[in-house]
From TrEMBL, chains A, B:
InterPro entries registered for this protein in UniProt: ADH-like_C, ADH-like_N, ADH_Zn_CS, ER, GroES-like_sf, NAD(P)-bd_dom_sf
Keywords from the UniProt entry: Metal-binding, Oxidoreductase, Zinc
Top-rank lineage group of the source organism: Bacteria
Pfam families in the cross-refs: ADH_N, ADH_zinc_N
PROSITE patterns from the UniProt entry: ADH_ZINC
Family: Belongs to the zinc-containing alcohol dehydrogenase family.
Residue span(s) of domain Enoyl reductase (ER): 8-347
Protein name as catalogued: Enoyl reductase (ER) domain-containing protein
GO molecular function: oxidoreductase activity; zinc ion binding
Cofactors required: Zn(2+)
Amino acid sequence: MRATVIHGERDIRLDEVPDPVLALPTDAIVRVVAACVCGSDLWPYRGVTPTHEPRRIGHEFVGIVEEVGGAVTAVKPRDFVIAPFYHCDFSCANCRNGVSTSCLHGGWWGATDESGHFVDGAQGEFVRVPNADGTLVATPSLPDAALVPSLLTLADVMGTGHHAAVSAGVTPGSTVAVVGDGAVGLCAVIAAKRLGAARVIAMSRHPERQALALEFGATDIVEERGDEGIARIQELTDGIGADYVLECVGTKESMDQAIRSTRPGGMVGYVGAPNGGPELPVRPLFNRNVGVNGGVAPVRNYIDELLPEVLAGVIEPGRVFDVELPLSEVAEAYAAMDERRATKVLLRP
Amino acid sequence: MRATVIHGERDIRLDEVPDPVLALPTDAIVRVVAACVCGSDLWPYRGVTPTHEPRRIGHEFVGIVEEVGGAVTAVKPRDFVIAPFYHCDFSCANCRNGVSTSCLHGGWWGATDESGHFVDGAQGEFVRVPNADGTLVATPSLPDAALVPSLLTLADVMGTGHHAAVSAGVTPGSTVAVVGDGAVGLCAVIAAKRLGAARVIAMSRHPERQALALEFGATDIVEERGDEGIARIQELTDGIGADYVLECVGTKESMDQAIRSTRPGGMVGYVGAPNGGPELPVRPLFNRNVGVNGGVAPVRNYIDELLPEVLAGVIEPGRVFDVELPLSEVAEAYAAMDERRATKVLLRP
């Protein structure tokens, strides 16, 4: 089959690789219907994290089950399934505690699982899925093609934006600010709105993303950053700050923006992967009782809650995809996101 | 009147100072019945924070109202009152949001208030109390003398331990670990227990404090620290970690202990004043979805909830006081706490 392999900095290729086969009775083989490129895929693409040898890449996909092992009962061939950006048994103590990203028997796409067998990356034609019963969620029936992009966001960005809002503890009637207008930030706007926020302030400088944020439920746009951005948030909140701030970037600057935009006693929900840092400054947190909660989003735990709303068209997170390409043009997909010509690229094998 | 003045490192004196007078119609003058020495008073005592010129010190007291300004309606002369470790109007947006330590018109004992008038420290005979209606809480009647120590803890340590538990979000049936066996840590044990924790693990090496922790509701004692302490907590929690960890010390080591003792998806409630640091390490928090919440405890917001239980004898946080001295021996009170001969010293003017 063909699958995406990163060979080094800015060197993305669609290579011929072995077809996956069932390795364990708990496995499934899934034919990928749609995959995509994540902001975090750009770290190795840009060389920020080094690529020492060619490796498979991609961790978001939806697809059709081709084959299942003898112990699999929750999904069957021909099911349309959503896979979170990791695999998990969905039954261990951490999974039951709502944190399936810390599954005691889980792991990551494009790496070996705990049995030592290789697990395919998502930007390919087929994927061997370990712990298929825990990892995969089947839709009740074959979904309309138009729903595929929104279903794909449940693999990562919609669940991650939701995690920011859940981690912050967004309450009905509250004021929420969202730092970051990438796919996750835009999904965080949807999440804050559906959790009942009365006011959602989107921090964005891009006209198209501002427009989408407003359609997703943002009530205010703040274009300023740094001290000026904080001053604007203060101005919009009677000088107090936002109740909850959703940090969806992962840089020192964005975290600082988030912490200082939060009112005393408020909470920062953060999901922007901090690439090697930054440390959190404890004094501004402690003195003002601003909490910080979040992390690598356990999106598998959220699919059951979000899927019905996607199927009913109540939320349309798939609108964050602004470019669609065949898998054969995966290198261009990376380039488009790297050069900010695209917010998020959907790939069709 | 006589009041405690810190003149420099390990130089605590009871000096003659001017009697306080009403400066504003919202003021009250309170005669101090009992005060105490706080762990944070030891920072300047030890010279960790420098004392550039002699200044008044002490921030925990209960007393009897002597006199009130014309605008004061909530307390009256002869009332027995509890003062939090700061003054506040208890009506601004931050106070209403539960964070009276961030009161827009509040301030600290032993410093000037927003009108520029000096506010006495608590380790003295009398205190001018700004915003008396917001700051002070009167007991329904003159309390029995035996209740005074527990009432005094509502000024700081009991409310602070409670804040650690509330900030962590302790839930019924949960497993809570408490880092720190000082007065605040011991009060955090009480708080975790009354919020319904099924298991409270107290980390302590002192036999007397262990005994008190067990009487306060601790179910397990862990003497080990660092990696060994974390291993013990893992052992006690089926290898998962504690749901909530209450950090009541404020050092880099104690915060590290707290973060690494928390299970994935759990929360650290922290109230140990971080003296100039440390920064929080974001990676271990992010990767395991461990949140951090807390800060300088808004104890005024908790008095209404905790006072009835103190008056009824349901909780006895006053037992953290293990030494009682007359105010004239305030220097010895500091020395006893500095040399760890006392957990917490109560002072009687």
